[in-house]
Model the fold of this input.
Amino acid sequence: GQQVMQIPQYQHVQEGEDFTTYCNSSTTLSNIQWYKQRPGGHPVFLIQLVKSGEVKKQKRLTFQFGEAKKNSSLHITATQTTDVGTYFCALPGGGNKLTFGTGTQLKVEL
Amino acid sequence: GAVVSQHPSWVICKSGTSVKIECRSLDFQATTMFWYRQFPKQSLMLMATSNEGSKATYEQGVEKDKFLINHASLTLSTLTVTSAHPEDSSFYICSASTSGGFPDTQYFGPGTRLTVL
Done:
């Protein structure tokens, strides 16, 4: 199936540092979703972006959809230990399917 | 709202046995349910899509005779791993979506960790 690349694959940061993960698609997207999966847990829906150039914020998280609707980013300001987990973007497919990105695993050290 | 449960949360079985995993939408009717598999440190890979009352649609490379899916009602879908082998050990996650509104959101269950000895 389609593989959606996310970079970086892993990121270790010190608590308080910022973190960004990028999701890239070769095709124009109608929308993109972001999920967070804590270690041992299941994916939890974070947000959905629909409009070109859209920027949405959730507290310390900022989500951006590229102007060409082919890429997206998730930025966390001043990371905390509670931010630990793997962040996935997910692209829509036919019939409400989702194709998940490769994920970025975030580790936050005190 | 929009809670999805899975049962069991973990299971250990012997090679050659079959294992059934249930996925339930607790407070909404799910027109479509999806089954994913996730190996350690990897992404979620869609296995199949099931719609209530119809046959499941399997992704390329997923054996439909090995992974039996039944979506008997708008709140319940089951995945049966038949004649399980150690390579089937994985984290199986279901999700449910409702129709109406665009784009639809999938609500994920807590997952079932299968270990085949």
In short: Chain A is about 0% helix and 55% strand. Chain A touches chain B at residues 1, 30-31, 33, 35, 41-45, 48, 50, 88, 92, 95-103, 105 (CB under 8 Å). Chain A has a mean pLDDT of 93.
